[in-house]
């Protein structure tokens, strides 16, 4: 199958169970590959195992091309464009809120991926220890960022915020690490030395920042529901019998958030998401390089919003990434295992998403 086509889109998860044979076949055939996984262990393992082979074959292997993690990657790039010199960002926190006029329901495939991800957390730590030596260090200028509490009231957004261990933060950090070591040139840049300014612009859009992801919840009841789900998964996912219980009764253990069969069409149509990007930094970059640590004095807020995340936003993101690969391949790196931000950050992906119902907005700029 991979030999007969230019591009494979993989939507079959959990990817830790079913993804690697497809990646392996694409690399062997030299065929480009995109998927919609949000599983950090799978993505980072594929990078470790197949990056060099994919470079030699001249094929792109890009995971997280759905809701995980296109809105976060392209949304962060959109946010960073508003930090115009001499301003300099230091941290960006992302807050996700899902709003629906009907009950919001997730698919059990996502639930299964999350349960298996927690159960193999030790494997991910070992994998990162193995790959750390080859990954460029991310150096953020300025004072160390003040991390918000795991659960806190966000006065700026008027929402309860709960730390979210999503794939977005790990994907964004991988993009920043790649940029720190020198973003890969496109095929066109390799063949034409006069395009060096394009490579320079590619590096500029990935300013290093401290990055975190949080759920944005309207009330304390929603916070308790998310805590209920998180505690059950953390306690039971480490044991085989516990995983069986979690996968057999997803509705109970997720407080109704995940159900077998997923949402119906009315529930899908009624749901929307908003991701706020709240960045803090310096009105003058010289403040970040002062001999004494100076706290940020400027805050910029942007947002990405769109329709339901799993069945509408995810296919929009995946298909638009695919169309760029098919129509503008020379503007992309020749080959390798990369993040969406590394591959699509300097393309017209944001404009394509806006034309298909996903909004990117500047909200505010203020001194703090």
Task: Please provide a written account of the structure.
Keywords: Membrane, Transmembrane, Transmembrane helix. One of its GO terms (biological process) is glycolipid biosynthetic process. The chain crosses the membrane at residues 220-241. Pfam families: Sacchrp_dh_NADP. This protein is of the alpha/beta class and 368 residues long. The protein has 16 helices and 13 strands. The strands form 3 sheets. It has a 7-stranded mixed β-sheet. Helix 2 (20-29) runs parallel beside helix 3, helix 3 (40-57) packs parallel to helix 6 and helix 10 packs across helix 11 (240-248). The N and C termini lie far apart (56 Å). The model has no long low-confidence stretch (mean pLDDT 92).
- Looking at the structure, what is the overall shape? globular
State the helix count.
Answer: 16
Question: What's the N-to-C terminus distance?
Answer: 56 Å
Structural class: alpha/beta
**Overall helicity:** 40-55%
Strand order, main sheet: write it out. Answer: 6-7-8-4-10-11-13
Radius of gyration: 20 Å
Beta-strand portion reads: 15-25%
Number of strands: 13
The major pleated sheet works out as: 7 strands, mixed
Mean pLDDT: 92
Q: Please mark out the parts with pLDDT under 50 across 5 or more consecutive residues, or reply none.
A: none
> Order of helices and strands, N to C?
EHHEHEHEEHHEEHHHEHHHEHEEHEHHE
